[in-house]
Amino acid sequence: MSRLQVVSGKGGTGKTTVAAALALALASRGRRTLLVEVEGRQGIAQVFETEPLPYEERKIAAAPGGGEVYALAIDPELALLDYLQMFYKLGGAGRALKKLGAIDFATTIAPGLRDVLLTGKACEAVRRKDKKGRYAYDHVVMDAPPTGRVTRFLNVNDEVAGLARVGPIHHQAQAVMGVLKSPQTEVHLVTLLEEMPVQETVDGIAELRGAGLPVGRVAVNMVRPALLGDAALRTALASPSHTAVAKALSAAGLGGSRRGGKAERLVDPLLEQAGEYAERHTLERAQRSVLTGLGLPLHELPLLTEGMDLAGVYELSALLREQGVGATA
């Protein structure tokens, strides 16, 4: 897989959890992965049940086969100080500006600058090498903004490169876009089998492609288990007769056959639940068909009935590996 894995999705689809599971999957077999947060929510710390992340790369998990997952919560103000030092050698002056509030003012008044700093820091981690010429990380996974904002977020350096025709800002913006629009990068979208998230995924893919950004995979999260076979689904959708269901329940030993008995009382709630399930299953099947029609690799991750915790993240990571993620370096 590509070295920079960008994960986006509509709010509520579990994109941070999927990004964490992806980082673990990619770090298997002795590899090193950096998981980057850019929204300031400390969502990664919550997923890994650890203290809030500082502005430094810190090991937060061990992956199967001796791999390691590091995490970084990018702070735009500190990233700007890094930028000033890197390109203008203004380390001391930059710190003085921070004390005066100028750094906070700059990153607040110019949202585009904030996105430039965030994407630039992530791409620097992708390009970084050690003294032996080896990449510091095999993969960098970015927990990116939601689908509706991700294209503009990733494409902001294209706009900056066009505005600043010369100088270090222009060259930095070009270098970042050189990573983001190259085979080194894939943008993955997380969705649910629901109409609004699926439509946002379809629209998001069209926007990403229109901007020349590389689309990777679609992860369908929180997939409910199949409870009824096709024949039972057809029966539920056909509104079976009350009497027939009551007789079937009686035959199965669930209450006597007399009128008003236990079997009779079970019929209405069972029919209601079966009808709701069949209707939802039909809608989910239609949304799955839409996603399949996109022609992208599709991964399905189950709804974990006991809730999401760190053990659940490892479980999702294992499922991603079973589906071929992280199989090759």
Automatic annotation (TrEMBL):
<dbReference type="InterPro" id="IPR027417">
    <property type="entry name" value="P-loop_NTPase"/>
</dbReference>
<dbReference type="InterPro" id="IPR016300">
    <property type="entry name" value="ATPase_ArsA/GET3"/>
</dbReference>
<dbReference type="InterPro" id="IPR025723">
    <property type="entry name" value="ArsA/GET3_ATPase-like"/>
</dbReference>
<protein>
    <submittedName>
        <fullName>ATPase</fullName>
    </submittedName>
</protein>
<dbReference type="GO" id="GO:0016887">
    <property type="term" value="F:ATP hydrolysis activity"/>
</dbReference>
<dbReference type="GO" id="GO:0005524">
    <property type="term" value="F:ATP binding"/>
</dbReference>
<dbReference type="Pfam" id="PF02374">
    <property type="entry name" value="ArsA_ATPase"/>
</dbReference>
<feature type="domain" description="ArsA/GET3 Anion-transporting ATPase-like">
    <location>
        <begin position="5"/>
        <end position="161"/>
    </location>
</feature>
